[in-house]
Amino acid sequence: MVEISSKLLSAAVDEMASLPGIGRKTAMRLVLHLLKQPSDNVERFGNAIIRMRRDLFHCEICNNISDTPVCPVCSDRSRDTSMICVVESIREVMLIENTMQYNGLYHVLGGIISPMEGIGPSDLKINSLVERASCENIREVILALSTTMEGETTCFYLYKKLIACNVEVSIIARGMSFGDEIEYTDEITLGRSIKNRQPFKNN
Q1: Which CATH number fits domain 7-55: 3.40.50.720, 3.90.1150.30, 1.10.357.10, 1.10.8.420?
Q2: What is the pTM of this model?
Q3: For the stretch 110-149, what's the b/e string if a residue is b when 16 or more beta carbons lie within 10 angstroms of its beta carbon?
């Protein structure tokens, strides 16, 4: 990599390269692109990132991202409030919404159980899920986690925690192969998996 003559430019490249999937060459190209833009455009870009980080909420009910304390899904009275779909992250909420096959509520765990990465049940939003399943008028909890070993482990743990809540626990149909992550699943397959979900105990 060519040595950068400006410390300010070098610092910007370092920050850009810290993003997932961005190497230093790509970071340099992006920073040089920004450098060519009018100051107003760059300020608008930077302010959008700052406002996102500063002003976004995590929904106090489901942990989804929102511009308000309660997200649009949880506050939508047309949704089926008897179902909760449990997902790993906000990305899966967006993917499932795009399938237009689900009209219930969500619960974002914030990850999956992964001892190799030091992530245990206490690091996830599991207690609040159990509380929702116990206290609210919930009929069914759908486990929509990736079919990796970590995802399967998390599903089994959640099932054990939820069976005492007197709710039906189901799992998305295996339209996806074992080892697949929902993030990379096409919308048609994901939609069918949600629609054709099965009771967890049968799995």
Answers
A1: 1.10.8.420
A2: 0.78
A3: bbbbbeeeebeeeebbbeebbebbeeeebebbbbbbbbbe
